[in-house]
Design brief:
Blueprint: E1 3-7, E2 10-15, H1 17-25, E3 34-37, E4 44-45, H2 46-49, E5 71-73, E6 80-82, E7 86-89, E8 92-95, H3 99-107, H4 125-135, H5 141-154, H6 156-173, H7 180-203, H8 215-219, H9 221-236, H10 240-251, H11 258-277, H12 281-287, H13 292-303, H14 307-326, H15 332-351
Antiparallel strand pairs: 1-2, 1-3, 3-4, 5-6, 7-8
Helix pairs in contact: 4-13, 5-6, 5-14, 5-15, 6-7, 6-15, 7-9, 7-12, 7-15, 9-11, 9-12, 9-13, 10-11, 12-13, 14-15
Length: 355
């Protein structure tokens, strides 16, 4: 049975009976939280709706136990333990007895006691950086990819259709005579920003329509264009120091010097570094409405905390796309949305609101 509930004034879900109980046990759903399922005429408080048909137990009292200075509550069993006898994950702690279950849930993409979602706007960029740096974060590459696959599988035609249309529009712009490359550059930011918004809505259980995939043109065209163009300029500027002497050598019909070749090699490595560091810039600009400079700065500062892990995620998710290409190319219709969803699940795990 699928349930929906109100979280920070917004509809969330669907969740099944077990997940509803887990959310109640974690304190995300309280006695007065409004919930709804098919067959109910109106939204009702959890305390009234649950006995009406789910058979789930009522959530624990909302009163917080009195904790000592070095005591914490296990996010799974809700018992009090000394901090040194638990493991910390983000903003929650898990006791030794619950650790195997908790880690299994992480592998499956379920994180009891950790709520992630859209933050209240506007977002302070410096405050966001400080918050994430203080609590740290984890990226489970396998979980991100598997959750991406489950998302596509559960919403196949909607997600694949939206990704295909966005990709088609982006590619079509490049065929315009003379202006093709410039049109593609101008379209990429709003198109990918809109696709990010669309996929995030699906992931968060919000109502998503095909039109959301093109919302970057109506709500944030200038911001998303600026973010993408600034990102591209910063990345390819790394080739300038080596490109100038090589250009001069070519103009003089001579071989480029060793120093120029070294500069080009270093520029290539710098491009890779920046491309990974800016992995979340566009979605930060689309979802949290950060301006171009702030989006790039926040992405770089946070990715730098675990750069190689984010790089690994990009490699693994990219290999999924390669498999789609090898599957008679048409497989890309499925693997491309998996790639984007995997990156966005990592984004949610890092930047999503956590309580």
């Amino acid at each position: 049975m699928n349930w929906y509930y109100v979280d920070n004034g917004k509809q969330a879900g669907p969740v099944d009976d077990l997940q509803l109980q887990q959310l109640a046990g974690a304190g995300v759903i309280r006695l007065d939280t409004l919930v709804w399922r098919e067959g109910m005429a109106n939204w009702q408080p959890y305390s009234q709706a649950v006995p009406a048909g789910s058979g789930a137990s009522s959530p624990p009292p909302t009163a917080t136990p009195v904790l000592g200075p070095d005591e914490v509550i296990c996010a799974e069993c809700r018992q009090v333990f000394p901090r040194q006898d638990t493991i910390a994950y983000g903003t929650v702690n898990v006791c030794a007895g619950c650790k195997p279950v908790f880690l299994q849930k992480l592998t499956e993409g379920v994180t009891t006691g950790v709520r992630r979602g859209r933050r209240t706007l506007p977002v302070d960029a410096d405050g966001l950086i400080a918050e994430i740096q203080s609590r740290g974060y984890q990226i489970n590459i396998g979980s991100c990819v598997s959750r991406g696959w489950e998302l596509v599988k559960a919403n196949f035609w909607l997600v694949v259709g939206a990704t295909f249309l966005v990709t088609l529009c982006q590619q079509a712009g490049g065929f315009v005579p003379f202006l093709g490359p410039f049109i593609s550059l101008a379209l990429y930011g709003p198109l990918m920003g809109g696709l990010n918004i669309f996929l995030l809505k699906v992931m968060r259980g919000e109502r998503a329509e095909l039109g959301d995939a093109f919302s970057g043109f109506s709500s944030a065209f200038g911001r998303l264009c600026g973010t993408f163009l600034l990102m591209i300029l910063a990345i390819y500027a790394m080739f300038v120091p080596g490109g100038i002497p090589i250009g001069i050598a070519i103009a003089n019909q001579s071989a480029p010097g060793v120093f120029a070749i070294i500069l080009i090699g270093l520029g290539f490595l710098a491009c890779i570094y920046l491309a990974i560091a800016f992995s979340f810039a566009l979605v930060l600009s689309a979802d949290l409405q950060l301006g171009p400079v702030k989006a790039l700065r926040v992405s770089m500062r946070i990715v730098n905390m675990k750069w190689f892990t984010v790089f690994g995620l990009m490699i693994v998710a990219g290999l999924v796309n390669v498999l789609g290409f090898l599957a008679c190319i048409i497989g890309l219709l499925v693997t491309m949305p998996i790639f984007h969803a995997a990156i966005l699940y990592a984004y949610e795990d890092i930047f999503g609101e956590q309580n």
